[in-house]
Amino acid sequence: MAPPPQPLPPGLSLGRTLGKEKFHKSQHWGFCNNVAMLVGEDKPGIGGEPLPGQKLKPKYSVFPAGMGSDAPAWVAFDKQVLSFDAYVEEEVPDKNQELYRIRHCKIYFYLEDDTIQVIEPRVKNSGIVQGTIVRRHRIPLPPPNEDEYYTIHHFNINTEVIFYAQRYKITDCDQFTKNFLRKMGVRLNPPASRPDDPYTKERQKILDSMNPLRPYERVDTLKQFLEHDGHVLRFFCVWDDPESMFHDPRELVLHYYLSDDTIDMKEITPVNSGRDAVPFFLRRDKLPKYAPTGLYQPGTITARTVLNVFGNLVGNRGRYILDNRKTGAVHQEFYRDSDLKIGEVINVWGRKILLCDCDEFTKDYYRTKYGIEDFTPVPYKTLPPPKPEKTFPPYTGFGSEEDSLCSCMGLLPKPPQKDFKKFLEKDRSGLESNILRFLAKFVTDSPVDKDRKFIICYFLSDDTISVYEYTQRNSGILGGKFLERGRIKKPGQELFKSEPSEYFKAQDLFVGARVCFHGHNFHLVDADEYTINYMEKHANEFSVADTGFILKKLKDIAEPRSREIRQVFAATDPEHTKVIAYEPFRNLIVSITDGAFSEHEIMTIGRYYGVKEEYETDLHLLLAVAQEQLKKNSFENFGQLSAVFVYNDCEKCGVLPYQMCRTICKSFKLPLVDDLLEAVLTMFEDDNKQVEYKKFLDGLNWRENQIPAFQTIRLPLKNEDDWNGQPPSLPFKKIKYLPLLDDLFGKEE
């Protein structure tokens, strides 16, 4: 039973509704919110289901379900195009030579968005505008279906398509298009023949029947130019000119251009040779091989040969034609890349040039193309005469040696140059002083000078030394500056000599060394911690601080007595604690090496195998220091800080990881230095590396849990009256001797 007809809106008659078939086909009336509205026929019913008798038309190409990926078309078919061969037939009413014209073109269908593009290949001298005929866009179907667009289902071989009233005949397609259409379920038609344009065919017959009046030979060198443009072989040559006055060889550089097989040569003019420097020894051109009969006369070699057919038989007029077989032509050979080898002699317009060497690119070229591996150069350069040794007059004693030496270097004396780079690297920078400090004593038997103590400072920036005397009460000697800062010569050198004097360097100063500064003998008995750490850090410069070098030296001395030395160390440790004190260890090393080791070398071994003492940090002292810093910076936001800790404690167990607690404190800009904050957090860690943040906050809260003010702890100064014969101060007291014995003699079975 047919549905009842819908009432018409007021003011619209039935005659006007049925006035246009097209309008009735594409539009119909519907209701929206009880208001009659004109809607399209492709609008579905309730729930998206088509209405009775309604056929929905797809807007884009529909691909079979279950094939390929689920990605959208603009992703799945990106850069995938179907290509069809087609032609179009046009009428030509305004020309007598042709009644119609066949134009071949390409139809491209882009799968990603169903766009179509038509391109006609350009033909030389066609006389018509070619190229893009239809730009890329979606093309509607011809009437009466102009509301729809071409999809992939409208294309097949041996069919016709109409683009804007222009009929295109599809004759064939490429292999990718065939495979794609077969997968889509399209049954392909057999390919159709493509007709030729009658006017173009007629013109081609005329062109083929025409013979050129001057049949020049075409030599195509474009391929060689494109492959080898910029590729140049370079050889180093020598020409022994026999006609020169002094019979000296002349060095040349030969360039062979692979792009056109040309050669040029340049001469290497030595300084003060007396010859004029010219741009080229040989201008760039093809270099002919020297013929046995000599050079050819001008006109002997020509590009083509012309024959006189009749001679003088017909009057005085001849008939000339081009000799394609080149009868009697003279062929001249030119030098090619295969003729150039190291050790070969080439003839350059009568001059014998010897090829002696080549660069790396040339070697790689011959190695790849010709398989040559021997590139032994030919020695051609004469050894330069030995330069006379420059002698300097001896030092006169006026000024410094460096300043006097600079006056002998040139007519205009210049001040001596300082090592500015070393000054920038070794100058004081922040906490890096780059100054080595040693404690020294006089080497003397005088009871007055025996107890005097000095501080020797070595400045690494300019290798200067200064000496200060330690002030001692009731000694009768005024302390202070003992020696002005400057470079100090080593003793035992001749004063007035031509060679520069030797000065003390950083490697000459170490604990246990004896040095002489301007007649004063010093014994270095100790060094500060910075000096020892610097020397160990730069062990490659200081052999006395190089653990590997010292162990090798000790192994060479003690290896023959390894069993005896093990017994001596075991006897020193009767309780088998595997450690001994530093003083017995030092005495054992001295007895083993018979005094061959310096005090600094023994100290380096002791520091390497020493047991560092661990100090327990007082929690109350740390909290007192922390509260003092918070109080000075007026930090009182403990309530907000506690709320943040509780918020981050998701399990409400009262503990948080160490890193999270540190991050929270940093975000609140807690005015504590990093070392102090990390130390306080570590004091409140449990066995699982979790921080009890409630105790941590209570300890920092100087308002509610103030710790009494602490007093600065003053450490007693070490007694410096016992330096003579005593070992230097060390941050440890015990030595692990078993690892030392294992490194020297191997592990005992």
Automatic annotation (TrEMBL):
Domain of life: Eukaryota
Keyword Hydrolase: no
PROSITE patterns given in the database record: DM10
Keywords in alphabetical order: Cell projection, Cytoplasm, Cytoskeleton, Repeat
CC annotations in GO: axoneme; microtubule
Stored InterPro entries: DM10_dom, EF-hand-dom_pair, EFHC1/EFHC2/EFHB
Subcellular location: Cytoplasm, Cytoskeleton, Cilium axoneme
Known function: Microtubule inner protein (MIP) part of the dynein-decorated doublet microtubules (DMTs) in cilia axoneme, which is required for motile cilia beating.
Keyword Cell inner membrane listed: no
Pfam families per the UniProt record, alphabetical: DM10_dom (PF06565)
Stated name of the protein: EF-hand domain-containing family member C2
Taxonomic source organism: Cairina moschata
GO biological process annotation, one example: regulation of neuron projection development
Location of the DM10 domain: 78-185, 229-370, 432-539
